[in-house]
């Protein structure tokens, strides 16, 4: 629906806000193909590792071992990695990760996503106060468990340096480096993994093709008119 709105009204600023289940399960096909289409809009994925609104079922991003109503003894499989998945899609142009407990970083990330030309995918790590209130708690309580990706072209971290001292220099134009940093380890890594504004944007390419097709029809009609005379 969001792509339909954007194609009909490319002048509008379109945001999609969804959960981990919405994006990575029932909406997985939309997520993958929207990344490939690269429309100029923003997707915010609120990831709390569980189906919270439907009362505690295992979601695609549930950590292995997390108990739920559908898997009481713990999630059977490791959780899907939304960042690695998005970075693996052709034409991905903006991929970032932030956390709900760092409002300054959250704001700067959404702002950067908004100003990006193309499809911006932002994973927001958050906790469900009812079912996953301890998720990411180590990172919330201990800044040393967080690693900020820093670069002049990345997410601004002014004011956070004194708190989050673990930092890694990462150029967001380097896709291979982004994919390496997206692999899961003992750090909660926040920042801009990848950005490329040179990739084709779907509504722009579509508009060019439609204009070209209209011009061809005009020329054909002119040719037919000459024959008719």
Give structural attributes.
alpha/beta, Rossmann fold, two-stranded antiparallel sheet, 229 residues, 19% strand, 36% helix, 8 helices
Shape: globular
Q: Count the helices. How many?
A: 8
CATH class: Alpha Beta
Q: What pattern of helices and strands is seen along the backbone? A: HEHHEEEHEHEHEEHEH
Can you tell me the number of structural domains? Answer: 1
Low-confidence residue ranges: none
The CATH homologous superfamily is called Thiamin diphosphate (ThDP)-binding fold, Pyr/PP domains
What is the count of β-strands? 9
**Given the helix and strand composition, which structural class is it?**
alpha/beta
**Over all CA atoms, what is the radius of gyration?**
21 Å
In round numbers, the mean pLDDT is: 92
Largest sheet: 7 strands, mixed
Q: How far apart lie the N and C ends? A: 47 Å
Helix content: 25-40%
Strand order of the largest sheet: 1-2-6-5-9-7-8
Structural write-up:
- The chain is α/β, with parallel strands linked by helices and 229 residues long.
- The protein has one domain (2-200): Rossmann fold (3-Layer(aba) Sandwich).
- The chain is 36% helix and 19% strand.
- It is built from 8 helices and 9 strands.
- The strands form 2 sheets. Strands 1-2-6-5-9-7-8 form a 7-stranded mixed β-sheet, sandwiched between helices. Strands 3-4 form a two-stranded antiparallel sheet.
- Strand 3 and strand 4 (57-58) form a beta hairpin.
- Helix 2 (20-26) crosses helix 3.
- The protein is globular and about 80 Å long.
- 37% of the residues are buried.
